[in-house]
Design goal:
This protein is an all-alpha fold. The chain is built from nine helices and no strands.
Amino acid sequence: MQASIQKDQAPSGKKPLLLRLLAHFFSYLFHPLFIPVYVLLFLLRFHPSYFSGFGEDDRFKLLLTTILNTVFFPAFSILLMKGLGFIQSVLLPTQKERIAPYLTAMIFYFWAAWVYFKFNPQPDVALASFMTGVFLTTVAALLLNIYFKISMHAMGVGGLVGFFLIVMKSNSMLMTWPLSLAFLIAGLVCTSRMIVSDHEPRDIYAGFFVGMGCQFVAAVVIM
């Protein structure tokens, strides 16, 4: 009887299946590769003045360039590394496996920040600042990865919150609901990583504040 009861009980520390499924869902939905695209879509759709001088063709080219440089090329590079045997898993579970992807992402984010946005015929300072912050975040992640496995997801949502705080400070639009949404997303993502990853709490907290801090540094330099 006792053995039967123990068999039916969930292992100690095991989260319910639905909770784990939701955690995986939010982890994929707000993967750090997607954050720059979400930020750009927000600015294109909701900000009243950013990109006001851009036509529909220019907006589409800007969106396509962002997707290529921040999603497609980094993701393709990781898949290529996996195919060639440089990494064992696309989930990058170890600090060693994250080194090459960080270096690759730095190249594409540098291109997006300094080559396309900074020297575009119609540059937008805020977006250039954001992409520079993303680049600085990858640099910080590479360096901190030497000491501990800092959370990439937390850095992504930290950058999202940091950039929205910068937009709020600029008084260019009412940021009540966007900032509230950004904090909600950050909470969901960080909690999800606590549930379904092997990160320690310090990895999550450090990632969030590093991502946010890099946005502040970039804003001081660019804006």
